Amino acid sequence: MTLLKPRDAPTRRTRGTAARPRRRPARAAGRRGGMSSGYAVLAALVVLAVVMLVPFVIVAFNALKTPTEYSTHGPLSVPHGLYLQGVKDFWNRVDYGQKLVNSVIISGTVAVAGTTLSVLNAYALGIGRVRGRLWILVLLLMANLLPQESLIYPLYFMFKKAGLYDTRLSVIIVFTVIQSAFGTYLLSSVLSSFPRPLLEAARIDGANRWQVLWRIVVPISRPTIVVLLVFFFIWTWNEFLIPLVMLISNDNQTVSVALGVLHGQRLMDATMSSAAALLGIIPTLVFFLIFQRTLSRGITVGAIK
Amino acid sequence: MTTTARDRRGYLPYLIPGLLLFVGVIAVPFAMNIGIGFTRWSGVGTPDWIGFGNYKELVKDSEFWASFRHNLALVAGMSIIPAAIGLVLAAALTDIIGRRFGPRTASVLRACIYLPQLLPIVVAGIVWSWILAPDNGAANAMLKAVGLDSLAHDWLGDPNTAMWAVMVVMVWFQIGFPLVIFMAGLQRVDPSLYEAAEIDGASWWRRFWHITVTQIRPEIYVVLLICTIYSLKSFPQIYVLTKGGPGGATNVPSYYSYQNFFEKTDVGYGASIATVLTLITVVLVVGFIRAQRGQLDEEGQT
Fold this sequence. Notes:
The structure holds 2 protein chains of 2 kinds.
Chain A (H helix, E strand, L loop, with lengths): L33 H30 L3 H7 L11 H10 L1 H32 L5 H13 L3 H13 L6 H24 L4 H9 L4 H12 L1 H17 L2 H6 L8 H10 L5 H34 L2
Chain B lengths: L4 H5 L6 H21 L2 E2 L7 E2 L3 H8 L1 H57 L2 H11 L6 H8 L16 H13 L1 H11 L4 H9 L4 H12 L1 H16 L2 H7 L11 H11 L3 H35 L1
Helix pairs in contact in B: 2-14, 4-7, 4-8, 4-11, 5-12, 11-14, 13-14
């Protein structure tokens, strides 16, 4: 998901309510409808949750089967043992380690650079309240809203001219700008309600703008900044069109591009496809486990603030 | 406010890197794309200026119109259906599960349903094209396991079912987003509204319709807008699931422009498709902001 609209979304809201757990008097049992219908709803939702997870499970099962086991018992059987050769073969064939490194370098750099750029922009727009800030904001947001299809050919052409085609740097530059559009938007609206007395006190103590930014504004806005870092990382990790066009050599491709291209060639057999899918899923699961709390906070912050 | 005009000007240097990069990476390429849309160009040599030639061709291009109809199906599969399901799920999770079985149960269920959203869409596509594979795919194997052999099918390979199959995959992928946003929105609804309605004897569905839906209307707008814009950028899922096929049955403008850019090297034509896509996005956003304003005014009066 790329764009969430913090400012337009809330109509009536006091800040901070989103994070507060919903409190209401406990009066569960014995109500009209009773417990039984509650259990029916619970059962239905558990079934739905399982259905949502089934694709992950069967992919994992089949990635761990030998090709003969797959062809004799089909895709639904539980694997007899742990057969890791398929995954290993696939790993070596696509040089998956290199793809992971590329994805980490690109996404990590974009996360840091995009967040830095967002902080600088938002400092001028949210705290500096420079003239025409609304228009600047709308303009910058276009970076995020525009279909990438309408930028891709000129970007491809320009990077070719500049000698940056097929470099990780080209993708890093583009996504730093695209992601920072959203970051600027979110951070400016957070910073526009930054406590003014704090800024004035620092100025009276002789701190200049640069020092105020790094010693006061950034530390206090840390929760939002962390959310931006995590989201920029994952969003960039998941990108496809621009990396697909820019990165053609094997040594530069990201995980998504490598898997997508290989899949597109329709050369993979069933077990290899499931190995590919499993290797694509694992990083996401790792991010999910590491960033779970930031993610759930972030989705709320991003959408509603 | 104590900030003076002079003080504000002192913040301008902080905008310079952002604005320069914006011009180089977004504004200039965007303007170039519009320009290229008025030319015939293969990507090498000098483009031939043909004015509105590409657009005249677009209007008559049945493949282009078909790709639009397919995108409408994606709007249903990625925006309307997930939002509708997400709304009911969010209400059920907050109101029934959260209250009777504890917020932890609700948040675990939410996490399970949200998980696909975090996948790279390409990976989601690979997972599903494997599941939907004609021979020995998991979907057909399941049908056979329950004795419905006759329904087994080449889901993505048959022009009659391909678009439906893509829609199902997208609903699976997309549901978590509205769910999470709506659940966050529901936290700010005043519980006393529900209590009053309950005392008045309103059924769960009545309360859902009259309180939940009206109270989180802003979130519903946002979700529909974001998901609809997102469905216009559907290149990755089409690339991995069907490559626009079979026979163009699932082609969408996003993929069609890519084909023209990089496969048919009809760059001018591809650029004009991308420009149309941009126009639609802008219309959607402006319409959305208007709708929101209208709603705000309405609420301001009451």
